[in-house]
Amino acid sequence: MAATPDAAIDPFTSSSIPAVTKADHTTVSPPTPPASQSTSNTSTDTDEDSNRSKLTRPRLMQRKSSGTMIIPRDAPTEAPPQQFPPDDARAMSPRRSSEETDKMLVSARLSIEKRAQDMQSGLAAIATQIETVSKNCESLDRQNQALQDAIGDMTRSLSRESLSSKKK
Q1: How far apart are CA 156 and CA 69, in angstroms?
Q2: Which of 48, 59, 44, 58 is nearest to 30 (CA)?
Q3: Which of 18, 70, 94, 107 is deepest in the core (most CB within 10 A)?
Q4: Closest CA to 35 of 25, 26, 23, 44
Q5: d(Cα 133, Cα 73) in Å, to the nearest integer?
Q6: N- to C-terminal Cα distance for the chain?
Q7: Are 53 and 32 in contact (CB under 8 A)?
Q8: Cα separation of 165 and 158, whole Å?
Q9: How far is Cα 8 from Cα 52, in angstroms, rounded to an integer?
């Protein structure tokens, strides 16, 4: 970047700022402050602005249009499976073979069957405890009924004796 011998004078700061020439031979001058900061005559400001060259933006490269993607209705919706060479990382992903899945299936089935047997044996133990408790409860009910009958007989006999002693 080389500075041109002509220096642009900034009317707001009263300092000289040189205009710069770029490699593509366009002259770039410093930006102008907004009009709200201007204290001088507006007609002279617009004349100075038109004399200054404006900043130019570099042109964008031309690109080809990608267009629209048109897919026929009878086209397959899924991509066919790809075959990778054995040394490719995608081929070395942690996929299991059918033998490994069969072993896993058998071990899972055995563990589930064992858990089911354990639960069934626990359920059978709970059922026997329920039967034992219900038999004990029935026995206690019979004993309670016998005690109530005995107490009732005793109170009746005591009440008869007390009535007969009062009559005498």
Answers
A1: 105
A2: 48
A3: 18
A4: 44
A5: 72
A6: 146
A7: no
A8: 11
A9: 8
Sequence-ordered strand ranges (E) for the chain: 2-9, 16-21, 27-28
DSSP conformation letters of 123-140: HHHHHHHHHHHHHHHHHH
Continuous segment of H or E residues that includes residue 47: helix 42-51
Q: Which residue has the tokens 């004990």?
A: 136
162 backbone dihedrals φ, ψ, rounded to 5°: -70, -35
Torsion angle of the four alpha carbons 50, 56, 62, 68, in this order, in degrees rounded to the nearest 10: -80
- Residue 167 sits at φ, ψ, to 5 deg, of -75, -25
**Both tokens assigned to 79:** 């991509």
Smallest CA-to-CA distance from 10 within 33, 28, 26 is with 33
Per-residue pLDDT tens for 7-60? 455 455 544 455 555 555 555 555 555 555 545 555 555 555 655 567 777 777
User: Tokens representing 137?
Assistant: 């409860």
Rounded to two decimals, the pTM is 0.36
Residue count (the chain): 168
